[in-house]
Amino acid sequence: MSRLRPSQPRYSNTWDPQLLLSYFEGLPKELSLRMLSQKLITLLALITGGRLQTLSLIRLSNISESQEEIQINITDPIKTSGLNKEQPTLHIPFYSEKPSLCVASTLKKYLATTKPLRAPNQDFLFVTTKRPHSTASKQTLSKWVKHALGSAGIDTSRFKPHSTRHSSSSAALRQGVSLESICRTVGWSEQTGTFAKFYNRPLGDKTAFANAILRLSKRP
C-alpha cells in the first residue's frame, strides 16, 4: 500500500513561531501551575523540535545543569529507538536576553513549583495540574500545547500540537541554521529526506512580506 499511496506531508505551510513567543512574552511573571505547565512543554517542543512522546519521558534523574545550559538525557525507549541508535540528549540554553522566554529558567521554576506536589518516587518531569498530581501522559501534554497554540492565535483546527516541529525546523532553516544542525537536533538523518519532504514548509501568511514593509512606516 505504501507504493500505491506514498506518505504525504500533513501541512502545505506552517505558522510563525513569533506568534507563540510573543504570546508567552506577554504573560504575567507569576503563573498558575496549569499555565506554567503549558508554557514549559510548548517552549520545550518548540526549541528542541522534539516529539511530545519524547518530552513526556523526561526524568528528573536525567536532568543536569551547567552555567550555560540544562542538559536532559532521554533514556526510555522512543519512536526512533533501535539497535545501535543513539538516544537523544536535549540541550536547553539559558537565554538572558529575554528572561520571560528562557526555557531553562522556566524549567527551574517548574521544578520548584512541583517539588512539594510530587510523590517521593515520582521521577518523570511533567505532572498533572490536579490532585493527586500523577505523571502527565503524552495526551495531556498534547492538550496543553494545543491550548497554548490557540491562545497565541494559531488555528488549531488546522495545526495540531505536533506542528511545533514543522514550525521550529522551518524557522531555523530560514534563520540560517545548517541542515546538519537541524537534523541532529530533531533526530533525523540528512540522507532520509524527512526534513525536505515533511517539515520544511513556507509560512502560511502570504501577506508577511507586505506587512513587514508596512511596519517600516512605524519607525521614527
Automatic annotation (TrEMBL):
The keyword Thylakoid does not apply. PROSITE patterns: TYR_RECOMBINASE. Residues 7-214 form the Tyr recombinase domain. It comes from Photinus pyralis. One of its GO terms (molecular function) is DNA binding. CDD domains: DNA_BRE_C. SUPFAM superfamilies: DNA breaking-rejoining enzymes. Pfam families: Phage_integrase. Keywords: DNA recombination. This is Tyr recombinase domain-containing protein. GO terms for biological process: DNA integration; DNA recombination.
